[in-house]
């Protein structure tokens, strides 16, 4: 069916500012219009004990970083109300060479670059300080400015601490979109925290050299309320004269904290954007309008759906997705219909406990469904890549190493052999940050 795969490379493209729009040695305030609340600034220190600062101004609020020569703190100011936030255990920097400030969704983070790596030294969830609606308001974001010191500094779009949820950009029939032999991928760019600090990014991968290059970022408008969000776990499809972009609304997801929250219906769902095919969607930054992608969950309990994967099979569309019976217990499902707004359930596997990354793949003319069994599954359903028929009855599993976390099985048949792009749960950014800063990109190939 599918050959044995082995790991051939690991990649970790960590960047605070991935799309520099300002590069200067002059201090003061500089316009930094943003499409969504994912921006960053960095500055070089004259010496490890030099005092310095950085700040973002949005919607009448100053979001600042202050460095006193030994420790970093965050300072938020709105009108006459100023609040300082410092980590007593993690705030002290160790011989820093640069400072960084990032805004990712509602999370403000102060960074120091130590021994060649970025370390988070203070973090604040701004939901505790201001009306966060302003952070998603596109008019306010268009007027955003950055305050820089008199040192070499850059500012622009926020990059990533790691990549996960990698999917091939594909034609509607599932064939990978290629450009001079290269593959295109969408990914979740990890931020300094849980899912609501991440966003969707686009990448170009050379199957020959395994070089991975960042090419763009996508943000999304919801159909039910205004603003720009960093939704992610995305599939990009070229369907004739249009692009289709299906994504999961993780951009403002809040971790359930009570038993009732874990079993209550969630706003987490799947949306769909349709973009004119003449648009160069794979390069640059864009905000996309979306509509609801209605995914059927008949016959089983579902509090949320995510991880869409689209494929047109003849005169019907298929959509693989994940449904959760509660947080976090989830399983694969498959829907089909004559159009994406007229889908019916084909199959589901609600007995599984920790299976996601539902992926449709055609192998030797047969349509298969692949997924990822996390380590919280039942015995025999842990740390593996199951292979199903379209009835979601398991037929076996990929013969491939299973990295940590819940890597998706993203495969392409290129240059006469199979290549797989996955990820792991390796964190970045230091001990202050919790879950969500993963992971390494793990590339596998069938052996020669």
Summarize the structure in words.
There is one protein chain. The chain has 448 residues and is mainly β. The protein folds into two domains: 15-159, Jelly Rolls, CATH 2.60.120; 161-445, Glycosyl hydrolase domain, family 43 (Tachylectin-2, Chain A, 5 Propeller), CATH 2.115.10.20. The chain is 3% helix and 53% strand. It contains three helices and 36 strands. It has helices at 133-136, 138-142, 259-263, and strands at 6-11, 15-24, 28-31, 38-44, 52-58, 61-67, 72-78, 81-85, 98-104, 107-114, 117-125, 145-148, 153-160, 163-168, 170-171, 178-179, 182-189, 199-205, 212-221, 228-229, 232-239, 242-248, 270-276, 284-289, 291-292, 304-313, 316-326, 329-339, 342-348, 355-363, 366-373, 386-388, 394-397, 410-414, 417-423, 441-445. Strands 14, 16, 17, 18, 19, 20 and 24 form a seven-stranded mixed β-sheet that branches. A hairpin with a 2-residue loop joins strand 7 and strand 8 (81-85). The longest helix is centred in the first third of the chain and has 5 residues, at 138-142. It is globular and about 65 Å long. The two termini are 17 Å apart. The mean pLDDT is 96.
Number of domains: 2
* SSE class: mainly beta
Q: What's the CATH superfamily of the largest domain, by name?
A: Glycosyl hydrolase domain, family 43
The radius of gyration computed from the alpha-carbon positions, rounded to a whole number of angstroms, is 22 Å
Distance N to C terminus: 17 Å
**Number of DSSP helices?**
3
Helical fraction = under 10%
Average the pLDDT over all residues and give the rounded result: 96
Largest sheet: 7 strands, mixed
Unreliable stretches covering 5 or more consecutive residues: none
- CATH architecture designation of the largest domain: 5 Propeller
The coarse silhouette is globular
Q: Determine the CATH topology of the largest domain.
A: Tachylectin-2, Chain A
